[in-house]
Amino acid sequence: MLRDEVLSLLKQGDEPRSGEEMSRALGVSRAAVWKAIEALRQEGYGISSAPRRGYVLESSPDRLSPGELSGALAGRLLGRELLCLERVDSTNDEVKRRAAAGAAEGLAVLAEEQTGGKGRRGRSFLSPAGKGLYLSVLLRPRCSLAELMWLTSWTAVAVCGGIQAACGVRPGIKWTNDLVLEGRKVCGILTELGLEGESAAPQYAVVGIGVNVSQTEADFGPEVAPLAVSLAQVLGRPPRRAALAAGVLTALDDMYRAFPRARAQYLEAYRRDCLTVGREVRLLRPGRAEQGFAEGVDDDFSLVVRFPDGRREHISSGEISVRGLFGYAD
Q: How far is Cα 206 from Cα 148, in angstroms, rounded to an integer?
């Protein structure tokens, strides 16, 4: 939309931009530029103007739009096509629908609200309007299925880096894919694959990320509040979601460009960030639970668990509860 293009121009530096300059750059009339400026003002953007000088962007609301993000993602694969929605059932589901219709990799879908946000094992992910960062990206990796199994762990490392770049705090990782600050979950990651029917070869991967940005205890509710935390609660103020989205998408783009050849680099970072190692854990299996000790993360990002009888297992799936995290205690 024209207002996104105008916003992108206004965000490029602090110098005033004249209506004539923008009309030439965008190939539209000065009247069209003026209407786009007025539309942005109606959305809450503070745009000043001075005769013979032009327009200056002085303040921005906490909104997600292509105009907010396109400049920060220029030249990147991820986010070269941006879809910013007010409401969607699930950003993962929206990306899967578009993948099935032939969308190119790099598509990023962001939403103000999800009505059916998803977590692992069919759980729901609370996604209130304007309170979080809900985004999914479409990848079409050219690698083996075994290597593709690393993608969630690599994503966890990348999102830790993206949050750190935007907010100055780095979460830890609860194996395999929950990000934790102050002992509570701040971000969830869900990776879903599309496979060819006959060969079972990977067609695409959808990586979904949900970050708690500005929720309060009241937003989480009494059952979830002891287990979840928002960036606003940790920082004392909410970060701008556009800056957070740009940081996360940039880190994901760097990760995807390195995947899967830079395994040693991401494995080292994952081991450093993983909070599960060195703790007692509870492994949930069908119909029973076993307690053990998390000794480390192996070269395939599986968790190495030692059980009381001395046996060791390399856990690549299942549910792990960690003593002292997310309400698990003796």
A: 12
For the chain, how are helix, strand and coil distributed in percent, rounded to 5?
A: 30, 30, 40
**What is the reported pTM?**
0.90
Residue 306 phi, psi (nearest 5): -105, 130
Question: Three-class SS string for 259-278?
Answer: CCCCHHHHHHHHHHHECCCC
pLDDT tens, residue by residue, 108-122: 999 999 998 766 555
pLDDT at 53: 86
Altogether, the residues listed in the chain come to a count of 330
Q: Could you tell me which residues come within 8 angstroms of residue 261 by beta carbon, excluding any fewer than 6 positions away?
A: none
The HSE-up count of residue 80 (CA atoms within 13 Å, CB side) is 11
Stretch 249-266: mean pLDDT: 97
Identity at 244, one-letter amino acid code = L
Q: Which residues contact 104 (CB under 8 A, 6 or more apart)?
A: 81, 138, 140
Bridge partner residues of 81 (DSSP): 107
Q: Please report, to the nearest 10 degrees, the dihedral formed by the alpha carbons of residues 216, 222, 223, 225 taken in order.
A: 30
Closest CA to 223 of 115, 119, 326, 114: 326
CA distance 164 to 191: 22
